[in-house]
Design a protein that fits this description.
- The chain is of the alpha/beta class.
- It is built from 11 helices and 14 strands.
- The chain has a 6-stranded parallel sheet with strand order 3-2-1-4-5-6.
- The protein is globular.
- It binds nicotinamide-adenine-dinucleotide and (2S)-2-hydroxybutanedioic acid (LMR).
- The site of nicotinamide-adenine-dinucleotide has 28 residues, from loops.
Length: 340
Amino acid sequence: MKQPLRIAVTGAAGAISYTILFKIAAGELLGKDQPVILQLLEIPPAMKALNGVVMELIDCAFPLVAGISTHDNPEDGFKDVDVAFLIGARPRGPGMERADLLKENAKIFSGQGKALNNFASRQVRVLVVGNPANTNALIAGRNAPDLDPRQFTAMTRLDHNRAVGILANHLSAAPTDVENVIIWGNHSPTQYPDLHKATVKDLPALAQVDRTWYENDYIPTVAKRGAAIIDARGASSAASAAQAAIDHMRDWMLGSGGKVVSMAVPSDGSYGIASGVIYSYPVVCADGDYRVLQGVPVSDFSRGKMAETNHELVDERGAIVDLLPAETEVKFNAVSHPTA
Ligand code: NAD
Ligand code: LMR
C-alpha cells in the first residue's frame, strides 16, 4: 500500500465540501490505491457542524481514509499537506458579482498563503475555489514566497466542464465527443469560452453551430452559469463545483491523458496576458505538472475577449495591492511555464 497523502480542505463544513470530502475519501481524486489523511479547516463557529461531517465520514468506513483531523487555524491545518483545496470563503448571493466578495474574502487568502508557506509540504499543490478565485489565488501565492508561484492555481474547470456539457447538450452529443474547448481568463462573466479549436466527434465545433448562437447565447450562458444556478437554487453551485475541483487536481497530479483542460495559473505573459495574474489557459497535464498550450490560433474576436478578461484581472490585482508583499514581485514576474 502507498504512503498516505495529506489533503487539506478549507470550508470543510460548507456546501462544496459536503460533496468533495466524500469523493476524496472514496478515491475519486487519487485512485483506489492511494490512502489519504484529511486535514479539515473551518472557522470556530463552524467547528460543531464540521464534527458532524467527520462523524459521517467515519460512518462511511472508507478503506482509503488513514486519518481525519479538524482545525480552526491554518497553521495546524496545513501542516505537511501535499494538496490544499482552499474552498472556505463567503459565497455571493443573488444580484452580486463575484468581485463584490473581493475585499471580504481576500484577507482569508493572505493568511492561508503565509501558513502554506510555513507549514505545508514543499511540493504542495494548491487549488483556490473560494471567490473571486483567480485573485484569491494570486494573494495566497504572493504570500508564500518560499513556494513556487506555479504551485498556486484557481478553478476554471467548472467553466470548462460547463462549456463541454452545454455544447454537447446543444448538439445531442456525448461530453466525451467534445475536445479542445478552452476557457481563457477570469472565473467571472468576462471569461472567454473559446470554441475555435474545439471539435465535436473530431469535426470543428464552430462548423456545427450557428455563429450567432455561439456569440450571443453560448458564450454568455457559460460565463453566467453561476448566477443562473444561484437564481434557480437560491444557493451557489456545489456538487458541480466539487466535481470540477476533483477533475482539476486529479489531472494536475495524475495527468490529463493528453487532453487539453483549462486551469487558471500564474501568467508568464503567454498570449499577451499580464505577467503574474492568475489567468485561465489551455493546459495539458503530465508528470505531476501542467504545461500551457502554446500556438493556439487567436482570431481578432478572440483577442478582444482575451484582453477584456485580462484587464479585469489587472484591475482586481490593483484593488488588493495592499495584500501583495512587494518583495515577491520579481519572483512572480519571472515565473515561466514549460510549454506543450
Ligand atoms: P458555504 O458558505 O456553504 O461554505 C463556506 C464555508 O467556508 C463555511 O462553512 C465557512 O464557515 C467556511 N469558511 C469561511 N471562512 C473560512 C476560513 N477563513 N477558513 C476556513 N473556512 C472558512 O460556501 P460554498 O458553497 O461551499 O462555497 C465556497 C466558496 O466557493 C464561495 O466563495 C463560492 O463563491 C466559491 N465557489 C467557487 C466556484 C468556482 O468555480 N471557482 C464554484 C462554486 C463556488
Ligand atoms: C459558480 O460559478 O457557480 C461559482 O463561482 C459560484 C458563483 O458565485 O457563481
